Amino acid sequence: MIKTVIIEDEKPASRKLERMLNEFPEIEVVAKIESVEEGVAWFSENEHPQLIFSDIVLGDGLSFDIFEKIPTKGFIIYTTAFDQYTLKAFKLNSIDYLLKPILDEDLAVAIEKFKSFIPSDSAVNSQEIKQLIKKDKTTLSRILVKIGYNLKIVQTHEISCFFSENKIVYLQTQERAFPSDFTLDELEDILDERKFFRVNRQFIINSDYIKNIHTSPNYKVELEFQPKEEITVSRERVKDFKDWLVS
């Protein structure tokens, strides 16, 4: 049996996931955890399970806090309504990332992926996990941003560019620029590289919003929606930029 723990602060969501997991005869749910505090206590006192299904945003913090305090050798499948935490999730033994509402077929694929990662004769090798994850890259499709005391979901296809200003990275939409919690280096790893390209140290642009490209004396890009700053392709990136435009 595959010992499994559910970390979820919404009781209906927790019960639904447990019912879905009960359809897999090899899965045994041994605990359901509702908070970071409860999670730290449980993982401190109990044998760690092979598999963990964990929501990210809990009532008293992020579930990442549990595994940063109590490292686990178990595999983690994160379940959440937002995918802005993808990069951090994959740094903490995550093998998959399911967006809510969870579909039966997506759950089945995630469990099969978990089975493929189980070494036949030894414990989990975290380096092997990371290498396998790189082959199955998840790309960012939406971002949660703060506006005062409110939250807003921005789809990445609505974003014309990301840019850095005063050590803060903003995302630009038709509406306005919103601050984000990412660095440009992190975004390079999780954005769809078919759509997004980092043209210089300050800008990542979306090809769908390119209005014009000037080639003399430097490559300069005009976007449909952009901040006041000019967007110039750095010299060392020009060749890759041209290749990207036709890929």
Protein architecture, described:
The protein is of the alpha/beta class. It has 2 domains: 116 residues, Rossmann fold, CATH 3.40.50.2300; 116 residues, Beta Barrel (OB fold (Dihydrolipoamide Acetyltransferase, E2P)). It is 29% helix and 31% strand. The chain has 8 helices and 17 strands. The strands form 5 sheets. It has a 5-stranded parallel β-sheet. It has a 5-stranded antiparallel β-sheet with strand order 12-11-10-14-13, with helices on one face. Strands 15-16-17 form a 3-stranded antiparallel β-sheet, with no helix packed on it. Strand 10 and strand 11 form a beta hairpin. The protein is elongated and about 65 Å long. The N and C termini lie far apart (46 Å). About 7% of the residues have low confidence.
Question: Which key terms come to mind for this protein?
Answer:
Rossmann fold; five-stranded parallel β-sheet; OB fold (Dihydrolipoamide Acetyltransferase, E2P); 2 domains; alpha/beta; 31% strand; phosphoprotein; five-stranded antiparallel β-sheet; LytTR_DNA-bd_dom; 8 helices; 17 strands; LytR-like; 247 residues
